[in-house]
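Dear colleagues,

I hope this message finds you well. In preparation for our joint manuscript, I am sending the TrkA family potassium uptake protein (Baekduia soli) sequence together with its predicted structure, so that both groups work from identical material. I would be grateful if you could confirm receipt.
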Amino acid sequence: MFILIVGAGRVGSSVARTALAAGHTVSVLDEDPLSHERLEVGLDTTWEEAGGRFTVGHGMEVDALTEAGILEADVFIASTDGDNTNLTISQIAQRHYEVEKVIVRVMDPARAAWYQQQGLHTICPTQHAIEMFTSALGAIA
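The corresponding structure tokens are as follows:
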């Protein structure tokens, strides 16, 4: 499976390494060339020698998306640090490029729920934290 991940921060790079180790073809797009270093944490080789791809560019740039392989993508993951960017590029991947599976990280629970209803697979760490804290409070009450 070909997976395109936009955003090589802690989350994106960890998902990328895990997917590559599981045998998937993984391409990562990030605007910071230094984020490439995160992809190699824990590897005995370079990211590219391990089979990964890395493209420098912004996820809203058509040329960068094309170079990163969006036309080949079976899965698109938006994991930048901005909800607006993640939601916009996820919709582009879903509607314009017709990527089969689109996963988007959204920090705002209300927006995550709405976009989930629109057909995007949303992951909301904030909502997960709220649920965990609420459960922990219920356990000690």
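For the figure legend, we might mention the following. The longest helix spans residues 125-140. The chain has one domain: 2-140.

With kind regards,
E.M.
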